[in-house]
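Anyone able to model this chain together with EPU?
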Amino acid sequence: MDKIIVEGGRTLSGVIAISGAKNAALPILISSLLTDGLNTYNNVPDLKDIHSTCVLLQNQGAHVEMNGDCVTIDAGDLHNPEAPYDLVRKMRASILVLGPLVARLKKARVSLPGGCAIGARPINLHLKGLASLGAKIELQHGYVEAKADRLTGADIFFDTVTVTGTENLMMAAALADGVTVLRNAAREPEVVALADVLNQMGADIQGAGTSVITITGVSSLHPVSVSIIPDRIEAGTFMVAAALTHGNITLTHCEPGHMQALIEKLRLAGAVIKISDKSVQVIGPERIASVDIKTLPYPGFPTDMQAQFMVLMSVASGLSIISETIFENRFIHVSELQRMGADITISGNAAVIKGMPYLSGAPVMASDLRASASLILAGLVAQGQTEVHRVYHLDRGYEAMEKKFEKLGASVLRVKD
Ligand code: EPU
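re: yes, here you go
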Protein backbone atom coordinates (compact mmCIF):
# COMPACT_ATOMS: atom_id res chain seq x y z
CA MET A 1 0.00 0.00 0.00
CA ASP A 2 1.30 3.48 -0.84
CA LYS A 3 1.92 6.28 1.63
CA ILE A 4 2.58 9.95 1.02
CA ILE A 5 5.44 11.80 2.66
CA VAL A 6 5.11 15.55 2.96
CA GLU A 7 7.93 17.89 3.97
CA GLY A 8 6.37 21.00 5.46
CA GLY A 9 7.33 24.63 5.31
CA ARG A 10 7.38 25.43 1.60
CA THR A 11 5.50 28.31 0.01
CA LEU A 12 3.47 27.08 -2.95
CA SER A 13 3.29 29.02 -6.17
CA GLY A 14 2.51 28.40 -9.82
CA VAL A 15 -0.26 27.40 -12.16
CA ILE A 16 -2.17 24.11 -12.32
CA ALA A 17 -5.13 22.89 -14.35
CA ILE A 18 -8.16 21.51 -12.55
CA SER A 19 -9.44 18.07 -13.63
CA GLY A 20 -12.98 17.00 -14.45
CA ALA A 21 -15.30 16.59 -11.46
CA LYS A 22 -15.56 13.11 -9.96
CA ASN A 23 -19.06 13.72 -8.63
CA ALA A 24 -20.28 14.96 -12.01
CA ALA A 25 -18.54 12.23 -14.00
CA LEU A 26 -19.98 9.34 -11.94
CA PRO A 27 -23.71 10.03 -12.58
CA ILE A 28 -23.04 11.18 -16.14
CA LEU A 29 -21.17 7.97 -17.06
CA ILE A 30 -23.96 5.97 -15.42
CA SER A 31 -26.62 7.90 -17.39
CA SER A 32 -25.27 6.16 -20.52
CA LEU A 33 -27.34 3.15 -19.33
CA LEU A 34 -30.42 5.11 -20.43
CA THR A 35 -29.35 5.14 -24.08
CA ASP A 36 -28.81 2.68 -26.88
CA GLY A 37 -25.66 3.71 -28.80
CA LEU A 38 -22.19 5.16 -28.37
CA ASN A 39 -21.73 7.96 -25.82
CA THR A 40 -18.46 9.92 -25.68
CA TYR A 41 -17.30 11.68 -22.52
CA ASN A 42 -14.30 14.03 -22.43
CA ASN A 43 -12.42 15.58 -19.51
CA VAL A 44 -13.08 12.47 -17.39
CA PRO A 45 -10.64 12.38 -14.46
CA ASP A 46 -8.37 9.34 -14.08
CA LEU A 47 -9.57 8.13 -10.67
CA LYS A 48 -10.23 4.86 -8.92
CA ASP A 49 -13.94 5.68 -8.62
CA ILE A 50 -14.13 6.22 -12.38
CA HIS A 51 -12.47 2.84 -13.02
CA SER A 52 -14.87 1.19 -10.55
CA THR A 53 -17.80 2.80 -12.37
CA CYS A 54 -16.56 1.53 -15.73
CA VAL A 55 -16.26 -2.01 -14.33
CA LEU A 56 -19.78 -1.72 -12.91
CA LEU A 57 -21.18 -0.54 -16.26
CA GLN A 58 -19.41 -3.41 -18.05
CA ASN A 59 -20.99 -5.77 -15.55
CA GLN A 60 -24.44 -4.50 -16.58
CA GLY A 61 -23.61 -5.25 -20.23
CA ALA A 62 -22.24 -1.93 -21.47
CA HIS A 63 -19.22 -1.75 -23.74
CA VAL A 64 -16.72 0.69 -22.18
CA GLU A 65 -13.43 2.05 -23.48
CA MET A 66 -11.06 4.46 -21.72
CA ASN A 67 -8.50 6.42 -23.63
CA GLY A 68 -6.78 9.17 -21.63
CA ASP A 69 -9.47 11.55 -20.41
CA CYS A 70 -11.97 10.21 -22.97
CA VAL A 71 -14.41 7.44 -22.06
CA THR A 72 -16.84 5.89 -24.54
CA ILE A 73 -19.79 3.82 -23.38
CA ASP A 74 -22.28 1.89 -25.46
CA ALA A 75 -25.13 0.38 -23.45
CA GLY A 76 -26.96 -0.99 -26.51
CA ASP A 77 -26.57 -4.49 -25.09
CA LEU A 78 -27.66 -3.64 -21.55
CA HIS A 79 -28.98 -6.89 -20.12
CA ASN A 80 -27.84 -7.50 -16.54
CA PRO A 81 -30.16 -5.97 -13.90
CA GLU A 82 -27.91 -7.08 -11.02
CA ALA A 83 -25.20 -4.91 -9.44
CA PRO A 84 -23.42 -7.23 -7.00
CA TYR A 85 -22.08 -6.46 -3.54
CA ASP A 86 -18.44 -6.74 -4.60
CA LEU A 87 -18.81 -3.90 -7.07
CA VAL A 88 -21.20 -1.69 -5.10
CA ARG A 89 -19.31 -1.85 -1.79
CA LYS A 90 -16.27 -0.21 -3.39
CA MET A 91 -18.20 2.93 -4.17
CA ARG A 92 -21.46 4.19 -2.72
CA ALA A 93 -22.31 6.11 -5.90
CA SER A 94 -22.95 2.71 -7.54
CA ILE A 95 -26.50 3.04 -6.21
CA LEU A 96 -26.99 5.46 -9.13
CA VAL A 97 -27.48 2.47 -11.46
CA LEU A 98 -30.78 1.69 -9.72
CA GLY A 99 -32.91 4.34 -11.46
CA PRO A 100 -31.52 3.76 -14.99
CA LEU A 101 -31.75 -0.05 -14.69
CA VAL A 102 -35.41 0.02 -13.62
CA ALA A 103 -36.20 2.61 -16.30
CA ARG A 104 -34.60 0.57 -19.07
CA LEU A 105 -34.77 -3.08 -18.01
CA LYS A 106 -37.97 -2.78 -15.90
CA LYS A 107 -36.13 -4.38 -13.00
CA ALA A 108 -32.96 -4.05 -10.95
CA ARG A 109 -31.24 -5.93 -8.16
CA VAL A 110 -28.62 -3.68 -6.59
CA SER A 111 -26.63 -4.41 -3.45
CA LEU A 112 -27.33 -2.04 -0.56
CA PRO A 113 -24.22 0.12 -0.27
CA GLY A 114 -24.08 0.13 3.55
CA GLY A 115 -22.55 2.82 5.74
CA CYS A 116 -19.12 4.35 5.42
CA ALA A 117 -16.60 6.20 7.56
CA ILE A 118 -18.39 9.56 7.33
CA GLY A 119 -21.85 8.35 8.30
CA ALA A 120 -24.69 5.85 7.90
CA ARG A 121 -25.69 7.30 4.53
CA PRO A 122 -29.09 5.65 4.07
CA ILE A 123 -30.77 5.44 0.62
CA ASN A 124 -34.35 5.55 1.89
CA LEU A 125 -35.13 8.66 -0.17
CA HIS A 126 -33.91 7.02 -3.40
CA LEU A 127 -36.21 4.06 -2.66
CA LYS A 128 -39.20 6.14 -1.54
CA GLY A 129 -38.92 8.21 -4.72
CA LEU A 130 -38.71 5.16 -6.98
CA ALA A 131 -41.71 3.63 -5.20
CA SER A 132 -43.64 6.88 -5.88
CA LEU A 133 -42.79 6.41 -9.57
CA GLY A 134 -44.53 3.03 -9.34
CA ALA A 135 -41.64 0.65 -8.74
CA LYS A 136 -42.28 -2.28 -6.43
CA ILE A 137 -39.35 -2.30 -4.01
CA GLU A 138 -38.21 -5.11 -1.75
CA LEU A 139 -35.12 -5.48 0.40
CA GLN A 140 -33.86 -9.07 0.28
CA HIS A 141 -30.55 -10.54 1.42
CA GLY A 142 -28.77 -7.17 1.39
CA TYR A 143 -30.11 -6.24 -2.02
CA VAL A 144 -32.67 -3.73 -3.25
CA GLU A 145 -34.99 -5.44 -5.71
CA ALA A 146 -37.02 -3.02 -7.80
CA LYS A 147 -39.54 -3.86 -10.53
CA ALA A 148 -41.77 -1.68 -12.69
CA ASP A 149 -43.32 -2.51 -16.05
CA ARG A 150 -43.58 1.21 -16.64
CA LEU A 151 -42.54 4.04 -14.33
CA THR A 152 -45.14 6.80 -13.98
CA GLY A 153 -44.48 10.46 -13.16
CA ALA A 154 -45.16 11.57 -9.58
CA ASP A 155 -44.81 14.51 -7.20
CA ILE A 156 -41.88 13.71 -4.89
CA PHE A 157 -40.74 15.66 -1.83
CA PHE A 158 -37.29 15.00 -0.33
CA ASP A 159 -37.34 15.63 3.42
CA THR A 160 -33.53 15.90 3.31
CA VAL A 161 -31.61 17.36 0.40
CA THR A 162 -29.84 14.46 -1.31
CA VAL A 163 -27.47 14.81 -4.24
CA THR A 164 -27.38 11.24 -5.57
CA GLY A 165 -31.05 10.77 -4.59
CA THR A 166 -32.00 13.71 -6.83
CA GLU A 167 -29.78 12.33 -9.61
CA ASN A 168 -31.15 8.77 -9.37
CA LEU A 169 -34.75 9.95 -9.60
CA MET A 170 -34.01 12.44 -12.38
CA MET A 171 -32.61 9.56 -14.45
CA ALA A 172 -35.52 7.23 -13.68
CA ALA A 173 -38.13 9.94 -14.34
CA ALA A 174 -36.53 10.90 -17.66
CA LEU A 175 -37.96 7.68 -19.17
CA ALA A 176 -41.21 7.56 -17.10
CA ASP A 177 -44.72 8.17 -18.40
CA GLY A 178 -45.87 11.70 -17.61
CA VAL A 179 -44.54 14.47 -15.40
CA THR A 180 -42.41 14.09 -12.27
CA VAL A 181 -41.78 16.98 -9.90
CA LEU A 182 -38.85 16.70 -7.47
CA ARG A 183 -39.25 19.13 -4.55
CA ASN A 184 -36.48 20.17 -2.16
CA ALA A 185 -34.13 18.79 -4.81
CA ALA A 186 -30.35 19.18 -4.55
CA ARG A 187 -29.02 22.27 -6.37
CA GLU A 188 -25.38 21.17 -6.71
CA PRO A 189 -23.58 22.01 -10.00
CA GLU A 190 -23.17 18.26 -10.51
CA VAL A 191 -26.97 17.84 -10.52
CA VAL A 192 -27.24 20.63 -13.11
CA ALA A 193 -24.48 19.00 -15.18
CA LEU A 194 -26.36 15.68 -15.19
CA ALA A 195 -29.63 17.42 -16.15
CA ASP A 196 -27.82 19.19 -19.02
CA VAL A 197 -26.49 15.86 -20.30
CA LEU A 198 -29.91 14.18 -20.01
CA ASN A 199 -31.49 17.08 -21.91
CA GLN A 200 -28.87 16.70 -24.63
CA MET A 201 -29.91 13.03 -24.77
CA GLY A 202 -33.45 14.22 -25.51
CA ALA A 203 -34.90 14.36 -21.99
CA ASP A 204 -37.18 17.21 -20.89
CA ILE A 205 -35.87 18.45 -17.52
CA GLN A 206 -36.62 21.97 -16.26
CA GLY A 207 -35.48 23.70 -13.09
CA ALA A 208 -32.19 21.89 -12.35
CA GLY A 209 -30.17 24.20 -10.11
CA THR A 210 -33.32 25.22 -8.22
CA SER A 211 -35.07 23.21 -5.53
CA VAL A 212 -37.96 22.21 -7.83
CA ILE A 213 -37.08 20.07 -10.83
CA THR A 214 -39.76 19.12 -13.34
CA ILE A 215 -39.17 16.14 -15.60
CA THR A 216 -41.50 15.30 -18.45
CA GLY A 217 -40.82 11.69 -19.39
CA VAL A 218 -39.91 10.74 -22.96
CA SER A 219 -40.02 7.32 -24.61
CA SER A 220 -36.30 7.02 -25.40
CA LEU A 221 -33.00 8.88 -25.12
CA HIS A 222 -30.15 9.05 -27.62
CA PRO A 223 -26.36 8.98 -27.09
CA VAL A 224 -24.33 12.18 -26.58
CA SER A 225 -20.82 13.54 -26.76
CA VAL A 226 -20.12 15.78 -23.75
CA SER A 227 -17.36 17.16 -21.55
CA ILE A 228 -17.29 16.85 -17.74
CA ILE A 229 -17.42 20.09 -15.70
CA PRO A 230 -14.39 21.07 -13.53
CA ASP A 231 -13.99 19.64 -10.04
CA ARG A 232 -14.89 22.38 -7.54
CA ILE A 233 -13.64 20.33 -4.60
CA GLU A 234 -10.24 19.66 -6.16
CA ALA A 235 -10.02 23.37 -6.98
CA GLY A 236 -11.06 24.28 -3.45
CA THR A 237 -8.42 22.00 -1.95
CA PHE A 238 -5.66 23.79 -3.90
CA MET A 239 -7.15 27.18 -2.99
CA VAL A 240 -6.82 26.26 0.68
CA ALA A 241 -3.23 25.13 0.00
CA ALA A 242 -2.42 28.61 -1.33
CA ALA A 243 -4.01 30.30 1.67
CA LEU A 244 -2.23 27.95 4.11
CA THR A 245 1.28 28.34 2.74
CA HIS A 246 1.21 32.12 2.11
CA GLY A 247 1.36 30.96 -1.50
CA ASN A 248 0.31 32.31 -4.85
CA ILE A 249 -1.53 29.70 -6.92
CA THR A 250 -3.47 30.13 -10.13
CA LEU A 251 -5.99 27.47 -11.05
CA THR A 252 -7.05 27.17 -14.66
CA HIS A 253 -9.90 25.15 -16.22
CA CYS A 254 -12.09 25.81 -13.20
CA GLU A 255 -15.52 27.32 -12.63
CA PRO A 256 -15.31 30.11 -10.01
CA GLY A 257 -19.11 30.48 -9.98
CA HIS A 258 -19.37 27.02 -8.37
CA MET A 259 -17.14 28.00 -5.45
CA GLN A 260 -18.70 31.17 -4.10
CA ALA A 261 -19.17 29.98 -0.50
CA LEU A 262 -15.53 28.91 -0.24
CA ILE A 263 -14.23 32.06 -1.96
CA GLU A 264 -16.18 34.19 0.51
CA LYS A 265 -14.74 32.33 3.53
CA LEU A 266 -11.18 32.36 2.17
CA ARG A 267 -11.45 36.13 1.64
CA LEU A 268 -12.65 36.53 5.25
CA ALA A 269 -9.62 34.47 6.30
CA GLY A 270 -7.45 37.09 4.59
CA ALA A 271 -6.67 35.51 1.20
CA VAL A 272 -6.65 37.71 -1.88
CA ILE A 273 -8.66 36.04 -4.62
CA LYS A 274 -8.70 37.24 -8.20
CA ILE A 275 -11.29 35.72 -10.48
CA SER A 276 -11.45 35.64 -14.23
CA ASP A 277 -13.54 33.60 -16.62
CA LYS A 278 -12.24 30.05 -16.03
CA SER A 279 -9.42 30.73 -13.60
CA VAL A 280 -8.84 31.78 -10.01
CA GLN A 281 -5.68 33.18 -8.43
CA VAL A 282 -5.32 32.80 -4.66
CA ILE A 283 -2.70 34.71 -2.71
CA GLY A 284 -2.35 33.55 0.88
CA PRO A 285 -2.33 36.08 3.73
CA GLU A 286 0.64 36.67 6.07
CA ARG A 287 -1.69 36.06 9.00
CA ILE A 288 -4.72 33.79 8.58
CA ALA A 289 -7.85 35.12 10.28
CA SER A 290 -10.21 32.73 12.08
CA VAL A 291 -13.58 32.25 10.36
CA ASP A 292 -16.60 30.16 11.37
CA ILE A 293 -18.19 27.82 8.85
CA LYS A 294 -21.29 25.66 8.70
CA THR A 295 -21.59 22.99 6.01
CA LEU A 296 -24.83 23.14 4.03
CA PRO A 297 -26.26 21.83 0.78
CA TYR A 298 -25.19 23.90 -2.26
CA PRO A 299 -24.90 26.87 -2.57
CA GLY A 300 -23.82 26.69 1.10
CA PHE A 301 -20.33 25.72 2.23
CA PRO A 302 -19.63 22.15 0.95
CA THR A 303 -19.12 19.34 3.44
CA ASP A 304 -16.47 18.02 1.02
CA MET A 305 -14.32 21.09 1.90
CA GLN A 306 -14.86 20.95 5.67
CA ALA A 307 -11.76 18.91 6.57
CA GLN A 308 -9.48 21.02 4.37
CA PHE A 309 -10.82 24.30 5.81
CA MET A 310 -10.31 22.95 9.31
CA VAL A 311 -6.59 22.62 8.61
CA LEU A 312 -6.51 26.29 7.62
CA MET A 313 -8.26 27.23 10.86
CA SER A 314 -5.77 25.08 12.83
CA VAL A 315 -3.06 27.62 12.03
CA ALA A 316 -5.26 30.75 12.07
CA SER A 317 -4.90 33.61 14.53
CA GLY A 318 -7.86 32.93 16.85
CA LEU A 319 -10.86 30.73 17.58
CA SER A 320 -13.22 29.34 14.98
CA ILE A 321 -16.23 27.04 15.03
CA ILE A 322 -16.92 24.56 12.25
CA SER A 323 -20.38 22.98 12.24
CA GLU A 324 -20.97 19.86 10.15
CA THR A 325 -24.66 19.56 9.31
CA ILE A 326 -24.60 17.08 6.39
CA PHE A 327 -22.90 13.93 7.72
CA GLU A 328 -23.04 12.79 11.35
CA ASN A 329 -19.51 11.42 11.52
CA ARG A 330 -17.34 13.66 9.40
CA PHE A 331 -14.77 14.69 12.03
CA ILE A 332 -12.57 11.58 11.85
CA HIS A 333 -9.66 13.68 10.62
CA VAL A 334 -9.74 15.63 13.91
CA SER A 335 -7.89 13.01 15.95
CA GLU A 336 -5.17 12.85 13.30
CA LEU A 337 -4.86 16.65 13.19
CA GLN A 338 -4.62 16.63 17.00
CA ARG A 339 -1.66 14.25 16.68
CA MET A 340 -0.03 16.96 14.57
CA GLY A 341 -0.53 19.51 17.34
CA ALA A 342 -3.85 21.05 16.28
CA ASP A 343 -6.01 22.35 19.14
CA ILE A 344 -9.50 21.13 18.28
CA THR A 345 -12.39 20.26 20.60
CA ILE A 346 -15.48 18.50 19.31
CA SER A 347 -18.88 19.06 20.80
CA GLY A 348 -21.70 17.29 18.97
CA ASN A 349 -21.65 18.42 15.34
CA ALA A 350 -19.37 21.38 16.07
CA ALA A 351 -15.60 21.61 16.28
CA VAL A 352 -13.94 24.48 18.11
CA ILE A 353 -10.52 25.22 16.68
CA LYS A 354 -7.92 27.34 18.42
CA GLY A 355 -5.33 28.40 15.87
CA MET A 356 -1.74 27.39 16.67
CA PRO A 357 1.44 29.05 15.37
CA TYR A 358 2.38 25.81 13.60
CA LEU A 359 1.61 22.08 13.32
CA SER A 360 4.21 19.36 13.74
CA GLY A 361 4.81 16.54 11.28
CA ALA A 362 3.68 13.06 12.36
CA PRO A 363 2.60 9.70 10.93
CA VAL A 364 -1.16 9.92 10.31
CA MET A 365 -3.89 7.70 8.91
CA ALA A 366 -6.37 8.76 6.24
CA SER A 367 -9.96 7.64 6.89
CA ASP A 368 -11.80 8.89 3.81
CA LEU A 369 -11.21 10.86 0.65
CA ARG A 370 -11.46 14.44 1.92
CA ALA A 371 -9.78 13.56 5.22
CA SER A 372 -6.79 12.31 3.19
CA ALA A 373 -6.57 15.64 1.39
CA SER A 374 -6.75 17.52 4.68
CA LEU A 375 -3.84 15.53 6.13
CA ILE A 376 -1.67 16.35 3.13
CA LEU A 377 -2.58 20.03 3.53
CA ALA A 378 -1.67 19.80 7.22
CA GLY A 379 1.68 18.28 6.21
CA LEU A 380 2.37 21.32 4.02
CA VAL A 381 2.34 23.65 7.04
CA ALA A 382 3.78 21.25 9.60
CA GLN A 383 7.33 21.45 10.86
CA GLY A 384 9.23 18.38 9.65
CA GLN A 385 7.88 15.31 7.95
CA THR A 386 4.31 14.00 7.78
CA GLU A 387 3.57 10.47 6.62
CA VAL A 388 0.02 9.94 5.40
CA HIS A 389 -0.97 6.27 5.40
CA ARG A 390 -3.90 4.60 3.58
CA VAL A 391 -3.71 7.05 0.68
CA TYR A 392 -5.81 4.78 -1.51
CA HIS A 393 -8.71 6.97 -0.38
CA LEU A 394 -7.00 9.88 -2.15
CA ASP A 395 -6.77 7.98 -5.42
CA ARG A 396 -10.55 7.63 -5.42
CA GLY A 397 -11.03 11.34 -5.92
CA TYR A 398 -7.93 13.42 -6.70
CA GLU A 399 -6.24 13.04 -10.06
CA ALA A 400 -2.42 13.11 -9.86
CA MET A 401 -2.55 15.13 -6.66
CA GLU A 402 1.08 14.74 -5.68
CA LYS A 403 2.23 15.68 -9.19
CA LYS A 404 0.17 18.85 -9.05
CA PHE A 405 1.61 19.70 -5.63
CA GLU A 406 5.10 19.02 -6.93
CA LYS A 407 4.47 21.45 -9.79
CA LEU A 408 3.61 24.10 -7.19
CA GLY A 409 6.90 23.56 -5.35
CA ALA A 410 5.66 21.32 -2.51
CA SER A 411 7.51 18.24 -1.36
CA VAL A 412 4.78 15.59 -1.58
CA LEU A 413 6.19 12.18 -2.39
CA ARG A 414 4.41 8.87 -2.90
CA VAL A 415 6.28 5.80 -1.69
CA LYS A 416 5.43 2.12 -1.26
CA ASP A 417 4.58 1.43 2.38
N1 EPU B 1 -29.70 10.99 3.15
C1 EPU B 1 -30.76 10.33 3.70
N2 EPU B 1 -31.47 9.46 2.90
C2 EPU B 1 -31.17 9.25 1.61
C3 EPU B 1 -30.07 9.94 1.04
C4 EPU B 1 -29.36 10.81 1.84
O1 EPU B 1 -31.08 10.50 4.88
O2 EPU B 1 -31.85 8.46 0.96
C5 EPU B 1 -28.92 11.92 3.98
C6 EPU B 1 -27.46 11.47 4.15
O3 EPU B 1 -27.32 10.52 5.16
C7 EPU B 1 -26.78 12.78 4.45
C8 EPU B 1 -27.59 13.79 3.61
O4 EPU B 1 -28.81 13.15 3.30
O5 EPU B 1 -26.92 13.09 5.81
C9 EPU B 1 -26.93 14.22 2.33
O6 EPU B 1 -26.45 13.08 1.61
P1 EPU B 1 -26.44 13.00 0.03
O7 EPU B 1 -27.40 11.95 -0.40
O8 EPU B 1 -26.60 14.37 -0.54
O9 EPU B 1 -24.98 12.48 -0.25
P2 EPU B 1 -24.57 11.57 -1.45
O10 EPU B 1 -25.42 11.88 -2.61
O11 EPU B 1 -24.44 10.15 -1.01
C10 EPU B 1 -22.88 13.24 -2.54
C11 EPU B 1 -21.42 13.23 -2.91
C12 EPU B 1 -20.60 13.30 -1.63
C13 EPU B 1 -20.96 14.59 -0.90
C14 EPU B 1 -22.47 14.63 -0.62
C15 EPU B 1 -22.93 15.92 0.00
C16 EPU B 1 -21.42 11.96 -4.94
C17 EPU B 1 -21.05 10.71 -5.67
N3 EPU B 1 -21.13 12.01 -3.65
O12 EPU B 1 -23.09 12.09 -1.74
O13 EPU B 1 -19.23 13.34 -2.02
O14 EPU B 1 -20.26 14.67 0.32
O15 EPU B 1 -23.20 14.45 -1.86
O16 EPU B 1 -22.61 17.00 -0.78
O17 EPU B 1 -21.92 12.89 -5.56
C18 EPU B 1 -16.93 13.01 -1.75
O18 EPU B 1 -16.79 13.32 -2.95
O19 EPU B 1 -15.94 12.90 -0.96
C19 EPU B 1 -18.27 12.77 -1.22
C20 EPU B 1 -18.49 12.11 -0.10
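The domain at 22-227 is CATH 3.65.10.10 (UDP-n-acetylglucosamine1-carboxyvinyl-transferase; Chain).
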